[in-house]
Every structure is written in structure tokens, then in C-alpha cells.
Design a protein that fits this description.
This protein is mostly helical. It has 14 helices and five strands. A three-stranded mixed β-sheet has the order 3-5-4, with helices on both faces. The radius of gyration is 27 Å and the shape is globular. The two termini are 12 Å apart.
């Protein structure tokens, strides 16, 4: 009788443990831990889930092809510095033979335009405006180049292209025609490029790209302080500048990078690794705690059955 009673108590207890306590534990633990991490944006995490729903299934090969076509269209719409131009020569002296890194192939060009800007495409294209080159010294430009490389390596540009494609006239056109990336009308591609150039990276993505740019400087043997001075110069443009309207506050980013250089804060990647380790440890601790609680409950119920049996 005691064994039957114990079994009858154990089955419901284990069901409650498996179906309710464990899921609640995981959800609660993740919310508490994520909310306590300074580099975690809860709104960003929510938006990421929405973005994942919006994004279309698009192969890496198609992404690279479409990014290449977009880059070519942008090149045609701007004045590209020829190889003999001093801007092109300066950029070439900075990047040297660095056309492959972290499994990605990069190509660099200068747009002769008095605008403080730079951008990257998912095919590895990095474009620097001459107005930005006039503003920064060589070390600061290396940080900007590393920053743009970071957007590519961290897949920010690929994600951006997928999302832009999902809402563009190009997607509708290809769907109606059962077309492929290789068959794209110029007007349709122009709509996509307009969406790409007006899109903004999230604050988290900008921080990740900043971290990559800082690591790039260090790996190449250059002063990491160039990252701080570059961001501070960009901050001096003023809040009304078009560059600042599409980027997080460079002054705050400079302060964050400076703290990293001083060893007073961690990069996003290091923070995420530490956070994952902490989550695993806490999940293990809470699992053991609840397991012990359930086992004590079962033993308590079994003890009560012994008392009842002795009284009978």
C-alpha cells in the first residue's frame, strides 16, 4: 500500500515538475538575468523576434548576389575615385592587401563626395566618402574601416538586406514573375537600395561593429585610442547632422570604447559569453534546488502514509 501511495504521489509531482516548474524556471531565470545585463536591450530582443518573422528565407549566395548588384548600382550613382586619385591611393595605403579576413572577402572604394559617411554591403563592399576621409587621420580611418568590416563579419549587413528585401517592391516583383536574383529590373533594385541606405543598424549592432573595429586596430598593431578619437570627432558634427541622425551617439560610444581600453568594461562578445555561462550556472543551481524540493515533498507524503498505516 505504501509503495502504491508513493507512486501515486510521485507521478503528479513529476508532472508538475516537468510541465510547469521547469518552463517557469527557465523563463523567469532568463528574464531576470537578461534584465540585469547592461548590454542587453530588452526592446531590442523583442524586436529581433519580430524581425525574424518578417525576414524571408534567402540563401547566403542570393544575399551576396543581391548585395553585389546593389553595390554596383551605388557605384554607378556616385563618382568613384580612380586609382590615380589621392583619396584612392590613401585608402589603398591603409588597407594594403587586406582583402580577406574571418572568412570574408572585402573590396574598397572611395566616393568623391563632400559627405561624412561610409557604408558596407553584405558582399564585402566597403565604401568611404571623401568627406569622411578629410575629417579623420589614418588611424581613425582604420577604425572606421574595421567598423564597417564588423558589420559584414557579424552578419548585420546580410540581416539588413534580408529585411529590406522582405518589404521591397523587388520581392513582390520576383514573386509575381517567379524570378530569381539574376533577373532584376533597375527600378526594382533601386527601391531595395533606397531601403538599404535609409535603414539603421541597432544600437547593439553598432556596439558590436565598434568592438570589431577596436579589435581590428589591436590585431594590426595600431593604437586603440584612434577608435576613441574617431568617435569623438564624429560627435563634434552636432546633433543636427545627417550622420548622427542615423547612428547612436558617438560620444557615448567613445566613452564605452575608452572604458574597454582601460579594462573597465567588456566587449559585447565577452559580455555575451559571460552571460551564457552565468545562465547555465543559475539554471543548474535552480534545477537542483527545485529537484530537492520535489523530492522532499515526495518523502513527506510517503512519511504521512507510514503514519496512517501504523495508526491503522
Amino acid at each position: 500500500m505504501m509503495r502504491d501511495f508513493a507512486n501515486s504521489a510521485l507521478v503528479p509531482a513529476l508532472r508538475v515538475w516537468r510541465e510547469y516548474l521547469v518552463p517557469l524556471l527557465l523563463v523567469t531565470g532568463l528574464v531576470v538575468l537578461l534584465a540585469g545585463c547592461e548590454n542587453t536591450d530588452m526592446q531590442l530582443a523583442t524586436e529581433a523576434g519580430v524581425d525574424a518573422i518578417k525576414a524571408v528565407t534567402f540563401s547566403d549566395r542570393d544575399v551576396a548576389k543581391l548585395a553585389g548588384k546593389s553595390s554596383a548600382l551605388m557605384d554607378n550613382e556616385h563618382t568613384v575615385a580612380p586609382a590615380s586619385n589621392h583619396y584612392a591611393q590613401r585608402l589603398r595605403s591603409l588597407v594594403g592587401d587586406l582583402h580577406e579576413q574571418d572568412g570574408y572577402t572585402f573590396n574598397y572604394k572611395v566616393y568623391l563626395r563632400d559627405e561624412v559617411n561610409a557604408f558596407a554591403m553584405a558582399d564585402g563592399s566597403i565604401r568611404i566618402f571623401s568627406g569622411l576621409m578629410d575629417m579623420l587621420d589614418d588611424g581613425e580611418l582604420r577604425f572606421v574601416i574595421g567598423h564597417e568590416m564588423g558589420h559584414i563579419v557579424k552578419q548585420h549587413t546580410a540581416k539588413q538586406l534580408r529585411l529590406a528585401f522582405a518589404t521591397s517592391a523587388l520581392r513582390k516583383g520576383l514573386s509575381a514573375q517567379e524570378g530569381v536574383v539574376g533577373d532584376i529590373a533597375r527600378s526594382q533594385l533601386g527601391d531595395l537600395v533606397q531601403r538599404l541606405t535609409s535603414a539603421q543598424f541597432s544600437q547593439l549592432e553598432e556596439k558590436e561593429a565598434d568592438d570589431y573595429g577596436l579589435s581590428f586596430l589591436r590585431a594590426q598593431g595600431y593604437s586603440p585610442e584612434s577608435a576613441v578619437s574617431a568617435l569623438n570627432k564624429l560627435a563634434s558634427l552636432g546633433s543636427g547632422h545627417s550622420f548622427l541622425s542615423s547612428h547612436p551617439d558617438p560620444a557615448l560610444r567613445a566613452e564605452r570604447i575608452s572604458l574597454q581600453i582601460q579594462g573597465k568594461t567588456l566587449s559585447i562578445e565577452e559580455t555575451q559569453k559571460n552571460m551564457l555561462t552565468t545562465i547555465k550556472q543559475k539554471m543548474f543551481e535552480w534545477y537542483n534546488l527545485l529537484r530537492d524540493m520535489v523530492m522532499r515533498l515526495i518523502k513527506s507524503l510517503t512519511g504521512q502514509s507510514d503514519i496512517k498505516k501504523g495508526a491503522a
